[in-house]
């Protein structure tokens, strides 16, 4: 990447510093390292408007390449992948012939998926292990995409066998907080939870399924418990309690793994300097690179690092790195992100064309990021809680390609209970604090997934709006 006004793209931290040997000599069978498994770092180049412009065969938006066999945009690529991976079954309220355009593509998910299949998107091109790499130029459109095959996918028959297998062989551990919802991960819309105490969660899931097209992931199987959770009886005064020494020790180990030093990426701009889109984009890339680098170093210091394989760590990091960065930005690095970076974005003035081309996905991300920021600002999440939330989010046993899912589940439960014990001990008069914290995790996961669909050139404007809104609201308080 060329050197621009804000400086060269260099290794985060000390100039000239090299990346540490993350693996300690440990590699998986193919010799992959964690950092090589990732597909987006600061090496991403600034979009060049001079390149050939092609349109998405699904919605007519600007295409970004060959995805699952056809030329399409990032939005339709992500929509198709989520629909297939989550085994989504949609319904059209009209005549199954809705218009597909950039502005109308989100109005009917049924017709959008139908057109993806009709145009030849190949669901077999989606990586089975859930890792990046769905774009495969060696796999063309489905050669025989008959009406019968499309109907089987649209009706959910294609997913029925796998869904039945999940229902018959799912988690039967009823000792965990809140029994798992027997139907919460089924593909049909309007599914209900087996627990009578989880009606509120079902409403939340129905809303997200119907309007967002994203179901609550199995990773958050404890969420039903949160809606019936009560740290203390409302009729009795809070009881004094102590924190288990082992829990305190594990929290301390998690905090020791975290790099709490201020970010090393410079964000100082001279007064009167007008920041360009390319310069702000390059700065965002450098920040993302440093934050990603810190997540890699964090994993190496985790107390359970030696308990899992390098392959599993690669799968986990490749699937959760965006969520980890977002969580870190909202907590331990929030003063810099919503302070110094906000000052830089204030010196950037988007053009009329940039404003006009801003996507619907970007608008939704802006709204949800602002809401999430205010939620974290209201909770004033402590470093101890942040460390536990980060570990819980990272230890996602439902990611494809893992070799130790059961072990991951036990680790997840461990830090779930530790976080619960800590909040009940430290915040005695906030009985709903723990469920409030845990409900932030699905939102972070959802936002991170939506940000993938936002074109790279729109990120400067997105961050400008979010940071300005959040900083302004805090000043008013």
UniProtKB/TrEMBL annotation:
Q: What GO terms fall under cellular component here?
A: nucleus
Provide the Nuclear receptor domain boundaries.
53-128
Q: What InterPro entries would the database entry show?
A: NHR-like_dom_sf, Nucl_hrmn_rcpt_lig-bd, Nuclear_hormone_rcpt_NR3, Nuclear_hrmn_rcpt, Znf_hrmn_rcpt, Znf_NHR/GATA
Q: Give the matching CDD domains.
A: NR_DBD_GCNF_like, NR_LBD_DHR4_like
Biased composition annotated in UniProt, kind: Low complexity: 184-196
Single biological process term from Gene Ontology: positive regulation of mesenchymal stem cell differentiation
According to the UniProt record, where is the region Disordered? 1-22, 159-196
**What residue spans carry the Basic and acidic residues bias annotation?**
162-174
Q: Which Gene3D superfamilies match?
A: Erythroid Transcription Factor GATA-1, subunit A, Retinoid X Receptor
- Every copy of the NR LBD domain together lies at 246-477
Which key words tag this protein in UniProt?
DNA-binding, Metal-binding, Nucleus, Receptor, Transcription, Transcription regulation, Zinc, Zinc-finger
Q: Which GO terms describe its molecular function?
A: DNA-binding transcription repressor activity; sequence-specific DNA binding; zinc ion binding
Tell me where it mainly resides: nucleus
Compartments (UniProt record): Nucleus
Recorded hits in Pfam families, A to Z, give: Hormone_recep, zf-C4
The record's family statement is: Belongs to the nuclear hormone receptor family. NR6 subfamily.
Quote the subunit structure annotation.
Answer: Homodimer. Interacts with UIMC1.
- Under which name does UniProt file this protein? Nuclear receptor subfamily 6 group A member 1
């Amino acid at each position: 990447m060329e050197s621009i006004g804000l400086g060269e793209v260099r290794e985060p931290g000390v100039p000239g510093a090299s990346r540490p040997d993350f693996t300690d000599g440990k590699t998986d069978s193919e010799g992959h390292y964690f950092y090589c498994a990732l597909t987006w770092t600061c090496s991403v180049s600034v979009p060049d408007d001079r390149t050939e412009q092609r349109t998405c065969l699904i919605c007519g938006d600007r295409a970004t390449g060959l995805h699952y066999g056809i030329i399409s945009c990032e939005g339709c690529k992500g929509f198709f992948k989520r629909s297939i991976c989550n085994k989504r079954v949609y319904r059209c309220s009209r005549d199954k012939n809705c218009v597909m355009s950039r502005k109308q593509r989100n109005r009917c998910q049924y017709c959008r998926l139908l057109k993806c299949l009709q145009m030849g998107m190949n669901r077999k091109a989606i990586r089975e292990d859930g890792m990046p790499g769905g774009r495969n130029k060696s796999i063309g459109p489905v050669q025989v995409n008959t009406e019968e095959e499309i109907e089987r996918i649209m009706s959910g028959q294609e997913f029925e066998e796998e869904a039945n297998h999940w229902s018959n062989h799912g988690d039967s551990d009823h000792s965990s907080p809140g029994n798992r919802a027997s139907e919460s991960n089924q593909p049909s819309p309007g599914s209900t939870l087996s627990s009578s105490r989880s009606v509120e969660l079902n409403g939340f899931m129905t809303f997200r399924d119907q309007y967002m097209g994203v179901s609550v992931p199995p990773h958050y199987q404890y969420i039903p418990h949160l809606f019936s959770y009560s740290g203390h009886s409302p009729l009795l005064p809070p009881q004094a309690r102590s924190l288990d020494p082992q829990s305190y020790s594990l929290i301390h180990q998690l905090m020791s793994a975290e790099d709490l030093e201020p970010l090393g990426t410079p964000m100082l701009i001279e007064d009167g300097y007008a920041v360009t889109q390319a310069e702000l984009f390059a700065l965002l890339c450098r920040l993302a690179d440093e934050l990603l680098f810190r997540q890699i170093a964090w994993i190496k210091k985790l107390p359970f690092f030696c308990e899992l394989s390098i392959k599993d760590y690669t799968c986990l990091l490749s699937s959760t790195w965006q969520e980890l960065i977002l969580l870190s930005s909202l907590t331990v690095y929030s003063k810099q992100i919503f302070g110094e970076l906000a000052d830089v974005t204030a010196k950037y003035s988007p053009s009329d064309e940039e404003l006009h081309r801003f996507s619907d996905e970007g608008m939704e991300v802006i709204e949800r990021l602002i809401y999430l920021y205010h939620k974290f600002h209201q909770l004033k999440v402590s470093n101890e809680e942040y460390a536990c939330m980060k570990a819980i989010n990272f230890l996602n046993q439902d990611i494809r390609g893992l070799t130790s899912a059961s072990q991951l589940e036990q680790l997840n439960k461990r830090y779930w209970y530790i976080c619960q014990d800590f909040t009940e001990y430290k915040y005695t008069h906030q009985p709903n604090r723990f469920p409030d914290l845990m409900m932030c995790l699905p939102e972070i996961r959802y936002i991170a997934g939506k940000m993938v669909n936002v074109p790279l050139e729109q990120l400067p404007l997105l961050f400008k709006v979010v940071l300005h809104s959040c900083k302004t609201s805090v000043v008013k308080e």
